[in-house]
C-alpha cells in the first residue's frame, strides 16, 4: 500500500519550474520581493475551473498573459467577435489577484487569432492574449510596451510567476473538490536568449514569419565553459554565455519554466528603463520537437530527475514584437523589433 501511495504522489506532481543549481524555493520568493515590477504581476483564476496562471498589468484595465492559459476557462465561452486579428471572448467568474486577499473581476479576453488557427508548434509564436478588467487599477504601475524595442545581446530577462503546481501536496490528489487558490509570487532570471526558428507557413507574409518566439537555455552553473575559436549557436556556446551572464549579474536565481507558470511576464531592462518583452508560453527540448506537450515521457523524466533538463531544454517565451526587416533597421547595431501590428491595433496604439 505504501508503494502505491508513493507512486500516486510521484506521478501527480506537476512542477511550475525546475530551479537552477543550489537555489531553494525561498530564494525565488525573496527575489520577487526585491523586484518593484512584481507589484504589477497577478494571478489569474476562474471559479468555474481549476485553471490558474500568471499575467501582468500593461494598462490600468488591461492584463497581458498567454493564450493557452485561457483554454479551460473558455470551454463555456465560444468566440463571438474577431477584432483587429484577435478573437474577443466574454469571461465569467474570472478574477485577477495582485496581492493576498484582493481580487479584481475580469470582463473579457482577446486572443490572437493566429494562435487559434495555427498548429501546436507554430502557434507558440502567437500564444498571447489580453484580459480586460471591469474597473481600472490605479494603485500600481502599468508596465509599458514600446512601439520599437532594441534588444542588445547582453539583456537579461526576469520572470515573475504565480505558478504553484509544483507545490501540490499528496493530499490534493485525494480531494474530490477544487483545490484552493494559492497566491505565491516567485521570480527568476533567463540569462541567455535566442530566436526560435520554425518552418515557414506557405503564403505567409515575410513580416509575420520572423516574429514572437524566443527561448532561454537551462544550464549548469557548476561547470566552466571555454569559448570556441569561431562563434556558433551551439548548445555549448549558449550555455557558456548563460553562465557568464549569471556570474556577471551576481548569480541571481534562475530556472526552467514548466507547465504551471504560463503567462508569466518576461521583463527586460534596457538603458535603465523597464519594459515588458513577452510572456512565458512553453518549455521545449533543444533538439527534436519544437514544444514539449503536457503528459509526455519527457516531462516525467524531468520531474523524476531535474538534472536531465540541464543543457537539454529551454524556456519558450512569446514576444509582443516582430523583427524589423527594413533596410533602415538592418544598418543599426543589434536586432531591432517593432510591436506586432495586431497587438498594436488591439491596444489602440498609434
Textual characterization of the structure:
The protein is an alpha+beta fold and 350 residues long. The chain has one domain: Thrombin, subunit H. It has 9 helices and 19 strands. The chain has helices spanning 2-12, 25-34, 113-117, 170-174, 206-209, 235-248, 297-304, 327-330, 341-346; strands spanning 17-19, 41-46, 52-59, 62-65, 81-83, 86-90, 94-99, 102-112, 129-133, 148-151, 157-161, 186-190, 194-195, 211-217, 255-257, 265-270, 273-285, 313-323, 335-339. Strands 10, 11, 12, 13, 14, 16, 17, 18 and 19 form a 9-stranded antiparallel beta sheet that branches. β3 (52-59) and β4 form a beta hairpin.
Quick recap of the structure?
This protein has helices at 2-12, 25-34, 113-117, 170-174, 206-209, 235-248, 297-304, 327-330, 341-346, and strands at residues 17-19, 41-46, 52-59, 62-65, 81-83, 86-90, 94-99, 102-112, 129-133, 148-151, 157-161, 186-190, 194-195, 211-217, 255-257, 265-270, 273-285, 313-323, 335-339. The protein has 350 residues and is α+β, with helices and mostly antiparallel strands.
